[in-house]
Amino acid sequence: MNQHIKGLVCRLRKGSKEAFDEVYGLFHKKIYLFCINYGLAESDAEEITQEVFLKLWLNRASLDSEKSLNSYIYRIGKNIIIDEFKKKIKTRATQEYQMSLIVPYNNVEEDMDYKDLKNLMDKTLLDLPERRREVFELSRIKGLSHKEISQELGISTKTVENHLNLALHNFRDAIQKTNVLCYALFILSFF
Fold first, then answer.
1. What is the pLDDT of residues 160-177, one digit of tens each?
2. Sign of CA dihedral 161, 167, 170, 175
3. Which of 51, 124, 134, 190 is the most exposed place for a label (fewest CB within 10 A)?
4. Residue 32 belongs to what H/E stretch?
């Protein structure tokens, strides 16, 4: 490793923002292109690139000036990309499994019920207060844990649990009201 990079690493370890800016300038485009070459969309590549440099800054005290900064930064990038792929696979598998549980058989009436239920769920989701909806989507759609959600939103895990419980209560209420309405319409049709 050349002396300039060693010097940058030493200064970075001491918290030099100028050294960080210089490292960012040297590696930003390379890491971004590295992400693109892994098949990520431009927005995902930029987000991961930012996360790489955030992790570099947070772990700057553990940098070793004798080891390759280049390898270290690329390893961070690769690990983040792999974690993102795992998260997407998990989310997709969860969604497909959940859909397989509620997808109706090839029956027109059940198909209509399914569409009505989906519309009801979509409407109920949109009617949730903003923070509750955000927590619910991060948990049930993106598959994040309570701890990950609390870190991302800057709230306690207990608050995350409360939002999820309230959201589920909203969904239960919406379904119960619909069932009552359907039952009432069914009875009225006999009269």
1. 999 989 988 887 887 777
2. negative
3. 190
4. helix 17-37
- Helix/strand/coil (H/E/C) assignment for every residue in 66-132: CCCHHHHHHHHHHHHHHHHHHHHHHHHHHHHHHHHHHCCCCCHHHHHHHHHHHHHHHHHHHHCCHHH
Helix (H, G, I), strand (E, B) or coil at 185: helix
Whether the pLDDT of residue 186 is over 70: the answer is no
Q: Do the Cβ atoms of 130 and 102 come closer than 8 Å? A: no
Distance CA 166, CA 130 (A): 13
Is residue 18 classed as helix, strand or coil in its secondary structure? helix
The contacts of residue 130 (CB under 8 Å, 6+ apart) are none
**Rounded-to-integer distance, Cα 170 and Cα 176, Å:** 10
For residues 124 and 166, give the distance between their C-alpha atoms in angstroms, rounded to a whole number: 12
Place of tokens 């959600």: 149
CB of 107 within 8 A of CB of 149? no
Residue with tokens 């590696």: 27
* In the block, residue with structure tokens 């002396």: 3
pLDDT (tens digit per residue) in 75-120:
999 999 888 888 888 888 877 777 766 655 555 555 666 677 778 7
Query: For residues 11 and 82, what is the distance between their CA atoms, to the nearest angstrom?
Result: 30
Q: Which domains does the chain have, with CATH numbers?
A: 3-88 (1.10.1740.10), 105-190 (1.10.10.10)
